[in-house]
Amino acid sequence: MTPRATLDLPQMAGAADAMQPVPVADRVHWVGALDPDLRNFDIILRTANGTSYNAYVVRGSTGVAVIDTVKQEFTEPFLKRLEAVARYDELTTLVLNHLEPDHTGAVPELLRRAPHLEICVSPRGVQVLRALLKDRFDDYAVRIVRTGDTVSLGDQTLRFLTTPYVHWPDTQCTHLQDQRLLFTCDLFGCHFCDARLFNDRVGDFRFSFEYYFEHIMRPFKAYVVAALDLIEPLDIAMIAPSHGPILRAHPRQYITHYRRLVKSRLASEVGDQKTLLIFYVSAYGATSMMAGAIYEGAAENPDVRASLFDLQIGEFTPFVDLIEEADALVFGSPTINGDAVKTVWDLLAGLVDIDTKGKLGAAFGSYGWTGEAVQMVEGRLQGLKMRVPEKGLKIKLHPTDAELEDCRDFGRRLAAHLTGRMQPREVDFADL
Ligand code: FEO
Question: Is the distance from the beta carbon of residue 186 to the nearest atom of ligand 1 less than 6 Å?
Answer without folding.
Answer: yes
